[in-house]
Amino acid sequence: MSLRHAILAMLDIEKGSGYDLVKRFDQSVSYFWAASYQQIYRELQKLESEALLEAEEVIQQGKPDKKIYEVTPNGIVELQKWLEKPAKAMKIKEPLLIKIYAGELADSKHLIEEISQHRSAHAERLQQYQEMSEVLINLEQPLRSKYFLPHQTLKLGIKIEKAWLEWADETLQAIN
Amino acid sequence: MSLRHAILAMLDIEKGSGYDLVKRFDQSVSYFWAASYQQIYRELQKLESEALLEAEEVIQQGKPDKKIYEVTPNGIVELQKWLEKPAKAMKIKEPLLIKIYAGELADSKHLIEEISQHRSAHAERLQQYQEMSEVLINLEQPLRSKYFLPHQTLKLGIKIEKAWLEWADETLQAIN
DNA sequence: AGCTTATATTCAATTTTTTGAATACGCAAC
DNA sequence: GTTGCGTATTCAAAAAATTGAATATAAGCT
Fold first, then answer.
1. Scanning A155, B36, B55, B130, which has the fewest C-beta atoms within 10 Å of its C-beta?
2. How far is CA A98 from CA A50, A101, A159, B30, B155, in A?
3. Does the CB of A174 sit below 7 A from strand C?
4. Does residue A171 contact residue A115 with C-beta atoms inside 8 Å?
5. More confident residue, B58 or B31
6. Partners of A57 in the beta sheet?
7. CA of A85: which chain B residue's CA is closest?
8. What is the pLDDT of residues B108-135, one digit of tens each?
9. Strand C–CB B85 distance below 7 A
10. Mean pLDDT of the region A143-155
11. Model-level pTM?
12. Which residues in chain A are closer than 8 Å to B107, comparing Cβ atoms?
């Protein structure tokens, strides 16, 4: 149950709406945490009801109104308490790899197509991460310091995406 | 819901008991699928009740009896049907990365310790995968062909573990 | 004799996730 | 004028995962 801690960590770095968070999960931490918008909105409500987050309603013109969430001191305490406990093991589910594992039973054209599509998705994501990394490198102090650790995590994302691309290329060559 | 397909794929390559499967999930596909023993045993029962698997009870001396599961023709059909549908997106949860992301709020010694521990775990896993890879490379035909695609997936595991190790070393250097 | 480890499996309550439906505003394209 | 997209959020049923307890055999250790 550390979705709540992921949310607290991200809002601690920078407050935002549920909608913002959904995008941030998708665009910048997708190599280490997957969360759907329903999950995020539900957890935001729960965190607010527990006073770990505080919401400010922002009335907008031309766009629907939104709620900007910010971590409360209690929220920081909760996050810190969690940080002290040993981290649980990673959990992953990658259906594509099951497909390849069982690929003998599949149509090889279909397999090649899917690997190619995934290759593209990883390439796109790699570029996204690299662009984000550039932005973080060029930040002025004290922002650069603030983003030092998130940036460090991003570097793992970049390495993993590169590993994927390499592997996808080798695999496409090997099965052709 | 592709735990069932992961199980079918793995039992199609080689039949085995629930206990065997738990070990195989843990030792050879943990970089792309996480499953607990409870999940695996429950799904095996379900798959058997749907006649996608067939169980043979094996009476053992010196050890508890066991059930060896084998994929039925219906199971193969089910797996093939699933293989035709586009693979769903990967889902991942890596609590350690949340910790690092929020690391400013944590005790840095504790952080270093945890990263070191994870480094060790990844190093161990890398070795495991590399040993397994050696075994697969040295198989005689037709086994080598049979394991070609599982071996290909293992190569991704090796790349990812290497990326982790590299990253852990760089991160430990950077935060020290 | 009692403790731990490895083998081998089952059940059930609780929590979390997934899937799907719903609502609503404004802009741009066809 | 309606279809689709981007912004923004909520609710709820159903499916799946997690947590924790239980059971049983035999080998090895202290």
1. B36
2. 40, 5, 22, 12, 14
3. no
4. yes
5. B31
6. A67
7. B110
8. 999 999 999 999 999 999 999 999 999 9
9. no
10. 96
11. 0.94
12. 83-84
